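Lab meeting notes turned into a lecture example. A postdoc, R.K., suggested we walk through two folding results consecutively so the class can see how the record format repeats. The first protein's sequence and structure tokens come next.
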Amino acid sequence: MAGEFSSVPCAEEHGTAREDYDNNQPGQASVVLRCAWSDRNALMTDLLTFPRYFPYYIGVKKYAFHCTAIPAPGTGYSNVSPTDQACLYTQALVSVQYGSQITDIGSESIEPTIEYDVLDHRRFKWVAGGSTGVPLLEGEAPPLISRSLNIMRTKYRMAAVPPEMLTCIGKVNDSVYTSLTLGLSFAAETLLFQPQSASQSFTTAGTSGFTISFKFSYKANGWNKFWRTETQSWSNVYIDGGSQYKPYTLGDFAALFA
């Protein structure tokens, strides 16, 4: 199977796939797709709204940028009613042109964060060593300052809101995530999913897909580790007589990272 042109039911007309190259541009391609006449507008909207590259591509990916629909020969007939003078068609041929022009389909960025936690003042004294020294008052407790970052991802023209926007709220990644955009890898349990905005705009041609933002808060030591004052390090906490306590459950973020 060569690939999928659209989510709208259609089929390539045999022998119509074409690719053009010259010295001035990376190349263009075209194809003719057959669909139901009633689906022609949905097909063209889908091709132009939700980018899918030309399935026969080699090298530079090409995306649809222009469509033309005509009735498929021999699939319609003329009316004879004076009040309904338009022809009735059953199938359409949609000519699709593909080019390698840049189309924004998503973005990824990093924003800095800082977090303050107040430590237990009873664990500190003003004089070093043993049990001697003046205890700290509650208002004198030192802060634990954690500097980190958020990964912000935005996807454009999504056909639907992924269900993981609901099922992964408050969960951490169950496996390593490598960002090809940022060139960074993030270990399991270091990214906490915090959903952001999702919006959809409408045009005269219908909807233009969803613009969805995803936020992942990064904690280098993992979200299921806690600061231990005695050792001055991040450590696991265990349920008395049981297993490790993990307030942040693990989730499959594959769809969110796609």
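The second example is placed directly after the first for contrast:
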Amino acid sequence: MNQPNQDDLVEPFFITEEIEAEMLTRGHTFEPPSHARTIGQIQILASLSDEKLSLWDGEIADEERAKRLSLLKPN
């Protein structure tokens, strides 16, 4: 029986310490994909300076700009 294609897997693929150790003994290393992230876009945009935020397009960036403007307005 053939092993399933990775695209057919239902569960996410995790490299455990044991698998990593086995890969290293066989001369392989695992590099996470360059698009991997550990925080969401909302947190990324919130951490940007106003100048850097101005370079971003999209609804979430617009919401962050509006939130910052509302904080600047006196009550």
